[in-house]
Write a structure and sequence with these properties.
CATH architecture of the largest domain: Alpha-Beta Barrel
CATH topology of the largest domain: TIM Barrel
Number of strands: 17
Structural class: alpha/beta
Number of helices: 15
CATH superfamily of the largest domain: Metal-dependent hydrolases
CATH class of the largest domain: Alpha Beta
Distance between the termini: 43 Å
Number of domains: 2
Radius of gyration: 21 Å
Bound molecules: zinc ion
Largest sheet: 9 strands, mixed
Length: about 425
Amino acid sequence: MVDHPSTALRGALIVTQDDARRVLRGDLLFRNGTIEQVGPAIKEKADLEIDARGYLLAPGFLNTHAHVANALLKGIADDRGFMQFLDTMFAIDAKRTEVDIEAGALLGVSEMLLSGTTGFLDMYYGEDAVARACERTGIRGFLGWTVLDPEITTQKGIPLENARGFISRWKHHARVSPLVALQGVYACKDETWLKGKELAEKEKVLLHYHLSETRGEVQENEKQRGKRPPEWLDSLGFLGRHQVAAHGVWLTNREIELLARKGVAVAHCPSSNMKLASGGGGICPVTELRAAGATVSLATDSSTSNNGLSMLREMHLAALAHKQQRHDPESLPAPVVLDMATRDAAHALGRDRDLGALAPGFQADLVLYDLSHPSMLPTRPENAISNLVYSAGDGAVHTVFVHGEKVVEDRRLVKLDWAKVVPDIERAAEGLLKTG
Ligand SMILES: [Zn+2]
């Protein structure tokens, strides 16, 4: 957007995701990264005019739970239970360096941008390297430094202090929003939860954490602390607004009501939960959470438990999994799933006034899908949302803007020379994959 203060996209099929969920044929005009007008025919001329006929224009996806640097580790911990999976991951975590974290993050972020994701919520350590990957590619990063009990961490130094330092280094960055990420009840004692919350409140940043992902985690917490995880966290005075809990597979009706009442958002990660059999036939109670008034967003989780980072694929799976599990084809209809990947995700991140929809005042985080791509042909206003959720392939993602800056053009990253980056990624993977 340095070269063109104002840009107009003309003649697109626009899925606005605005409050009225308008789907229309028309134009969108943005200036200095902010959308000014969306409508059937905008008269004003822009500095850059783009013919967008033949494209579907939609807000970029917000992936609300990832460990993006693990893109380097895909395929190394498949077909095993959660505890064995964690053992493998912790052994590798201990060996990771900032160089391979940045290489992994570049890989993961690239996969996200090329599949229409313009922002993501991450949980890891070494997040400075992930932040640099965001700068190098142009994606928006909500980056949570993992905090856990100091006596069990593989991080150098004290995790809470590492998080504090990370937040102070990146707090005023345009596209990187640092935050506090707590690993989960199995890695954090009460003092760790409360100090994490204190830091987040002092710095006015989000809190992100794993919650009730597996049955074993819930049972162990009941055994050790006499309460299921959400009730225990509530008894500590931890639960509250500006928090995104990942998974929420094992929740009782009382816990659903509690999370809704406390304003905790839940990030649903169906691929990861199904692959690790975390639900054992069950699934995050998205319908009940929504009915109780909780915000539910969608997420891929990590490349080691998914093993991709495409929100298009995640939307498809989420819709199908809920229909199958509940014996109800009307469960999680396409418009709800698209909301979870866009405007509800923005709400979870505390950004519902400028992200997740195409409307005046919102950031120009936009994706153009090629309507001649076989997975999108034929698309009309009537089936546009269905095609996005059920049939769109990553190959349909043609052009992506973040804050008005073109970061993907003709299915290629704009800011990164991919051919030059591949050897770095291969080299970083070399040492790590041997240890798997
Ligand atoms: Zn996770």
